[in-house]
C-alpha cells in the first residue's frame, strides 16, 4: 500500500493505492477513508488498482481556496481523479455517505468513465422523501439541521469533538465485535483544525442550504436528477433506517439491468467496517459478473 498525492481540479489530494489493474476508486464521506481498509486489499488481490483518496478539505488533502464543498465540485473531483489516474472505461466507482452522493452524480455525469458502481448507505435523493415528516426520521437526521447553525462550529469542536463521537454512535448498528474507536479517531484527525471542521460542516450547509433545501431552486436535487446507466450494486445496513426491504426492492427496480442490492443484517451506517467480510464478498461477486 502506497501513500501518494495528486493534483485534481487545482487541488492537491492525498490518496492511498494498492494493486494493479482496472481502477477501483473508493470515496468516503463525513467520516474517514479508513472505512475502506478491508475492501481495499480485497480489491487489489482481485486484480484492481484500488485507490482511496481523501476528500477535499479533509486532512491531509488540500483545503479548497474557494471553500467549496458543493456536490458539483465533489463530482468533478471524482471524474478528475479518473482522468488523472489514467482510468479506463473498465473503472469502477464505490462510494459511502457523501462519497455515495458523489458516486450517484459522477457515474451519471460521465458514464463513459465507469463500468460499474457500488453505493453504500446513501440511496438516490427521491427515497429520502419517504416518511420525511416522521418525527423519528427528523430526529435521526438532527445533524443536518444542527450543522446549519453558525454556533455548530464551536459546539462540535468542544470536548475533543465529542459531538462526532455521539454522531458516529447515533448512526452505527453497534455490531458485536466492531470497535469504532480507531475509526472515530481517524475521522477527527481528518477535521483536525477549525478550518477543516468548518469545511466538513459546509458539506451540509452548502448542499442542504436552509433557504432552498427542498425547493425547485435546490441545486443538489438538480445535480442528482438522473440515475446512472451502469450496473449498480446498492448495499444498506438494516440498522440505518433510511432504507428497508420494501424501499430496497423499489430502488433496485429503478436501476439499470445487471444491478442488485442487499440489506446487510445488523449493520448500521458504517457497514464497510461493521460487516467487512459480507460487504467485501458481495462487492467482489458483483464486480466479477
TrEMBL record:
<dbReference type="InterPro" id="IPR000073">
    <property type="entry name" value="AB_hydrolase_1"/>
</dbReference>
<feature type="domain" description="AB hydrolase-1">
    <location>
        <begin position="25"/>
        <end position="276"/>
    </location>
</feature>
<dbReference type="InterPro" id="IPR000639">
    <property type="entry name" value="Epox_hydrolase-like"/>
</dbReference>
<dbReference type="GO" id="GO:0016787">
    <property type="term" value="F:hydrolase activity"/>
</dbReference>
<dbReference type="Pfam" id="PF00561">
    <property type="entry name" value="Abhydrolase_1"/>
</dbReference>
<keyword id="KW-0378">Hydrolase</keyword>
<protein>
    <submittedName>
        <fullName>Alpha/beta hydrolase</fullName>
    </submittedName>
</protein>
<dbReference type="InterPro" id="IPR029058">
    <property type="entry name" value="AB_hydrolase_fold"/>
</dbReference>
Amino acid at each position: 500500500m502506497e501513500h501518494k498525492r495528486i493534483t485534481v481540479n487545482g487541488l492537491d489530494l492525498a490518496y492511498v493505492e494498492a494493486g494493479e489493474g482496472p481502477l477501483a476508486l473508493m470515496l468516503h464521506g463525513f467520516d474517514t477513508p479508513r472505512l475502506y481498509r478491508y475492501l481495499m486489499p480485497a480489491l487489489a488481490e482481485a486484480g484492481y488498482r484500488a485507490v482511496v483518496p481523501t476528500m477535499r478539505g479533509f486532512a491531509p488533502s488540500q483545503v479548497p481556496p474557494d471553500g467549496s464543498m458543493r456536490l458539483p465540485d465533489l463530482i468533478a473531483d471524482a471524474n478528475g481523479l479518473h482522468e488523472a489516474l489514467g482510468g479506463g472505461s473498465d473503472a469502477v466507482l464505490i462510494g459511502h455517505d457523501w462519497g455515495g452522493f458523489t458516486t450517484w452524480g459522477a457515474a451519471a455525469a460521465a458514464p463513459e468513465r465507469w463500468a460499474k458502481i457500488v453505493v453504500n448507505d446513501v440511496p438516490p435523493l427521491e427515497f429520502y422523501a419517504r416518511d420525511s415528516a416522521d418525527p423519528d426520521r427528523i430526529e435521526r437526521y438532527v445533524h443536518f439541521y444542527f450543522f446549519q447553525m453558525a454556533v455548530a462550529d464551536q459546539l462540535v469542536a468542544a470536548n475533543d469533538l465529542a459531538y462526532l463521537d455521539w454522531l458516529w454512535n447515533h448512526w452505527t448498528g453497534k455490531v458485536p465485535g466492531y470497535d469504532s474507536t480507531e475509526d472515530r479517531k481517524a475521522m477527527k484527525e481528518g477535521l483536525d483544525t477549525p478550518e477543516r471542521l468548518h469545511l466538513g460542516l459546509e458539506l451540509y450547509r452548502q448542499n442542504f442550504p436552509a433557504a432552498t433545501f427542498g425547493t425547485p431552486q435546490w441545486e443538489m436535487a438538480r445535480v442528482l436528477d438522473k440515475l446512472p446507466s451502469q450496473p449498480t450494486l446498492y448495499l444498506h445496513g438494516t440498522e440505518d433506517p433510511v432504507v428497508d426491504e420494501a424501499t430496497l426492492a423499489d430502488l433496485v427496480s429503478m436501476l439499470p439491468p445487471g444491478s442488485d442490492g442487499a440489506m446487510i443484517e445488523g449493520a448500521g451506517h458504517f457497514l464497510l467496517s461493521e460487516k467487512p467480510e459480507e460487504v467485501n464478498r458481495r462487492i467482489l461477486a458483483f464486480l466479477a459478473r
